[in-house]
């Protein structure tokens, strides 16, 4: 557990440092994630403690954005003024994104023989 | 005789200045909301984040507690967002066989879906009169919340507003996805899952897992890749927004 957490924090640190050093406009943790992915690729998989900690943390992922979400109470004014634009744009753009992604991917997937429901090995 | 009210006020004064209350309330609100959500057989409209945020906002408004006071305690939960984003590398690595096998369909669909999600949201919101800051907060709305909030902060949006937009997007996608995919006659679970994960991140992924393991795996793949792509693409979108709107 502790070893896994150290892995995550060290990679986040490296990410934050790189972002500030090079002046990348990308969130530090995302750079940390990319670097960790590269490390996993080279090591051919996560160690047991890292695997356990990562899964434990991610199983409660949605809890983690509750505090920031509560911050919306500071922005009621904006929501009251702009909610029609926000709601309409979210609904239409989400439907379009689902449709376009699905159509593009279906067009490009190798054809499956009928009767095999999932990708063949 | 001692005044029974005074100790109560003293307790309240203690609780108000200690981070304990904000932290406890956050966990209790989330756990209760999750319990309700599970009881409703994971109805996307009862999304636990949405419920927990609504309950906490109501409580803070009723008790006249300012947000910074609450955040004193809640920041310990908030802090874990960073390590959680780093941790996303682990499930993404486990999807490596799928990425390799279906590289072209996955990458092209990812790009197309990502561009459509951002561009259509911006154009529609702009046409309906949304302000510049709102538009910037909208940019990362299809991406998983921890990454989205990081992006919003980087490009000058409001992270808290983005968090709410992200959850709303996830709920909309999870609720409407099935109808869109059925209307387009998409039968392949890999495609259905991927589209849901791309447009509706973790909430769409959870929805996809309810339908099939395979759909869930592809949804997870889409939401992980979309997070990375968006983080690197958002600065370009930011320049476009500044330029055109």
Question: Mind sketching the topology for me?
Answer:
The complex is a heterodimer of chains A (121) and B (245).
Chain A: H1 2-22, H2 28-43, H3 48-58, H4 61-64, H5 66-70, H6 76-108
Helix pairs in contact in A: 1-2, 1-3
Chain B: H1 5-17, H2 19-39, H3 48-62, H4 67-79, H5 81-87, H6 89-94, H7 96-101, H8 103-127, H9 132-138, H10 145-155, H11 159-183, H12 189-211, H13 213-244
Overall description:
The complex is a heterodimer of chains A (121) and B (245). Chain A is mainly alpha-helical. In chain A, 74% of the residues lie in helices and 0% in strands. The longest helix of chain A has 33 residues, at 76-108. The radius of gyration of chain A is 21 Å and the shape is extended. Chain B has two domains: 5-79, no CATH class; 86-244, no CATH class. In chain B, helix 12 crosses helix 13 (213-244). In chain B, 83% of the residues lie in helices and 0% in strands. Chains A and B meet through helix 1, helix 2, helix 3, helix 4 and helix 5 of A and helix 2, helix 3, helix 4, helix 5 and helix 6 of B.
Give the gist of this structure:
The complex is a heterodimer of chains A (121) and B (245). Chain A contains 6 helices and no strands.
N-C termini distance of chain A: 35 Å
- Care to count the β-strands of chain A? 0
Secondary structural class of chain B = mainly alpha
Largest sheet of chain B: none
First and last CA, distance of chain B: 69 Å
Biggest interface between chains: A-B, 76 and 113 residues
* H and E order of chain B: HHHHHHHHHHHHH
Radius of gyration of chain B: 20 Å
SSE order of chain A = HHHHHH
Shape of chain A: extended
Q: How many helix segments of chain B?
A: 13
- In percent terms, what proportion of residues of chain B is strand? under 5%
């Amino acid at each position: 557990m502790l070893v896994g957490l150290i892995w995550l924090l060290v990679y986040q640190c490296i990410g934050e440092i790189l972002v500030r050093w090079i002046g990348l406009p990308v969130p530090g943790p995302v750079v940390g994630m990319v670097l960790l992915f590269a490390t996993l690729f080279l090591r051919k998989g996560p160690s047991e403690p890292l695997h356990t900690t990562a899964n434990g943390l991610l199983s409660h992922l949605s809890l983690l954005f509750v505090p920031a979400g509560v911050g919306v109470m500071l922005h009621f004014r904006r929501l009251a003024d702009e909610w029609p634009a926000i709601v309409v744009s979210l609904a239409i753009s989400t439907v379009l994104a689902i449709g376009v992604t699905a159509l593009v991917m279906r067009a490009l997937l190798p054809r499956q023989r009928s009767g095999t429901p999932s990708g063949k090995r | 005789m001692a005044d029974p009210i005074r100790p109560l006020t003293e307790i309240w004064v203690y609780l108000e200045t200690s981070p304990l209350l904000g932290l406890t309330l956050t966990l209790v609100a989330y756990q209760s909301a999750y319990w309700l959500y599970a009881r409703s057989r994971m109805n996307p409209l009862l999304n636990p984040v949405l419920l927990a945020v609504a309950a906490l906002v109501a409580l803070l408004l009723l008790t006249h507690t300012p947000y910074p006071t609450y955040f004193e305690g809640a920041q310990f939960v908030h802090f874990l967002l960073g390590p959680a984003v780093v941790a996303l590398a682990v499930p993404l690595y486990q999807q490596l066989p799928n990425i390799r096998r279906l590289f072209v369909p996955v990458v092209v669909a990812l790009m197309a879906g990502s561009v459509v999600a951002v561009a259509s949201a911006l154009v529609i919101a702009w046409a309906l009169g949304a302000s510049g800051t709102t538009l910037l907060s909208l940019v990362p709305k299809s991406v998983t919340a921890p990454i989205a909030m990081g992006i919003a902060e980087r490009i000058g949006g409001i992270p808290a507003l983005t968090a709410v937009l992200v959850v709303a997007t996830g709920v909309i996608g999870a609720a409407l996805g099935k109808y869109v995919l059925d209307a387009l006659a998409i039968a392949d679970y890999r495609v259905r899952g991927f589209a849901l994960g791309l447009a509706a991140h973790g909430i769409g992924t959870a929805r996809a897992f309810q339908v099939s393991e395979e759909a869930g795996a592809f949804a997870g793949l889409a939401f992980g890749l979309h997070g990375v792509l968006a983080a690197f693409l958002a600065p370009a979108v930011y320049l476009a927004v500044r330029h055109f709107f």
